[in-house]
Write a structure and sequence with these properties.
There is one protein chain. By secondary structure, the protein is of the alpha/beta class. It folds into two domains: 240 residues, 3-Layer(aba) Sandwich (Aspartate Aminotransferase, domain 2); 131 residues, Aspartate Aminotransferase, domain 1, CATH 3.90.1150.10. It is built from 14 helices and twelve strands. Strands 1-7-6-5-4-2-3 form a seven-stranded mixed sheet, with helices on both faces. A five-stranded mixed sheet has the order 8-9-12-11-10. Strand 2, helix 4 and strand 3 form a beta-alpha-beta unit. Helix 2 runs parallel beside helix 9 and helix 12 packs across helix 14. The chain is globular and about 75 Å long.
Length: 383
């Protein structure tokens, strides 16, 4: 079945007899047992809920996986995933990670006995050199947040298989519409469903998707035990958002490329990071493993004053956290998403006071470019 059709029709399981086109919201914490030792398949919503099950089956199909678990946030999903590891285990992770993931690893996972090496995973030798007897997994973001580095997933998957390591891939930026890490050899795919899957900046969600039955059972046990499940109503919002995922991403990607090309021509912009530009180091890898480049980009201004002026002068584009929604959002990584990373580490990765990250929404490309243009010139905050 075509991906677009799957987004609209999702799971083929039916939950009611009314003929409702929209999946019902089963706003119930508990479910009646038909008899002693009998179950409808639903007992308590922390374990499973019909609305959430429909969403999970849909996401599993979209990613080409066996099972998907829907969490209350992307960070809840990663936190639960870390529980499969034991004190002393070592994980190799992309150095240009979303700041929240870095914060979790450094401040909570390390406290719990895990160790990490953060490397530029776009260079596979960096991964190979850090593998040790206690290494258990490789954690990848591609493209990365916010520098948009691209890692060859099939190449890393081969390395992981050779060393019996789990390959975990954060697929938030590209979604299964553009990239399917499980089909490239990954063991676990994760998403902040808050972003493109939801698509409307109106709810939080997270996902873990796997292809292996044993890993599914292990994670399902942790999922039920820790209880960070997605609510029925938020599950319904994600079901609704996913229906328009392909049409949103097609439009957003087209606009992102227009903006990236325009930024390259601006005197006050010193660098543009977008995998869809032919001069991007990850351009060929992206074409090989993904069907699109996404709608996220970052760019560097000529000085911090220009960066501040853009943030304070945009009027259509909104200066706010998050990404992937229908509204275009601009962020200042050093003060927002990556504020908890030590300044020396942050700046070594290029996340300085001139870097801005842009999530391109569904507005007119011309309007967005005009907004950035007036902001670069000094703008009018009331424009």
């Amino acid at each position: 079945m075509d991906f677009t059709t799957l987004c609209i029709h999702g799971s083929d399981k039916k939950y009611d007899t009314t003929g409702a086109v929209s999946v019902p919201i089963f706003q119930s914490a508990t479910f009646v047992h038909p008899g002693v030792g009998l179950s409808t398949g639903f007992d308590y919503s922390r374990s499973q809920n019909p609305t959430r099950e429909y969403l999970e089956q849909t996401v599993a199909k979209l990613e080409g996986g066996l099972d998907a678990m829907a969490f209350s946030s992307g960070m809840a999903a990663i936190t639960t995933l870390m529980e499969i590891f034991s004190p002393g285990d070592h994980i190799i992770a992309t150095d240009d990670l979303y700041g929240g993931s870095h914060r979790l690893f450094q401040h909570i996972s390390v406290k719990n006995g895990l160790t990490f090496d953060f490397v530029d995973t776009s260079r596979i030798n960096n991964i190979r050199e850090r593998i040790q007897p206690k290494t258990k997994a490789v954690f990848i973001e591609t493209p990365t947040n916010p520098m948009m580095h691209v890692t060859d997933l099939a190449e890393v998957a081969r390395l992981c298989k050779a060393h019996d390591l789990l390959l975990i891939v954060d697929n938030t930026f590209l979604t299964p519409y553009f990239q399917k890490p499980l089909l490239l050899g990954a063991d676990v795919v994760l998403h902040s469903g808050t972003k493109y899957l939801g698509g409307h900046n109106d709810t939080l969600a997270g996902f873990l998707i796997v292809s292996d039955e044993a890993l599914s059972e292990r994670l399902r046990f942790l999922f039920k035990t820790t209880g960070a499940c997605l609510s029925p109503f938020d599950s319904w919002l994600l079901i609704r958002g996913i229906k328009t995922l392909p049409v949103r991403l097609d439009r957003q990607q087209k606009t992102a490329l227009q903006i990236a090309k325009w930024l390259l021509e601006q005197d006050r912009i010193k660098a543009v990071h977008y995998p869809g530009l032919p001069n991007h180091p990850g351009y060929e890898t992206s074409k090989k493993q993904a069907s699109g480049f996404g709608a996220m980009l970052s760019f560097e201004t000529d000085c911090s004053e220009t960066a501040h002026r853009v943030l304070e002068s945009v009027s259509l584009i909104q200066y706010a956290e998050s990404l992937g929604g229908v509204e275009s959002l601009i962020t200042y990584p050093m003060l927002q998403t990556h504020a908890d990373i030590p300044a020396e580490e942050r700046e070594a990765r290029g996340i300085g006071d001139c870097l801005l990250r842009l999530s391109v929404g569904l507005e007119s490309a011309e309007d967005l470019i005009n907004d950035l243009g007036q902001a670069l010139k000094g703008g009018n905050t009331n424009a």
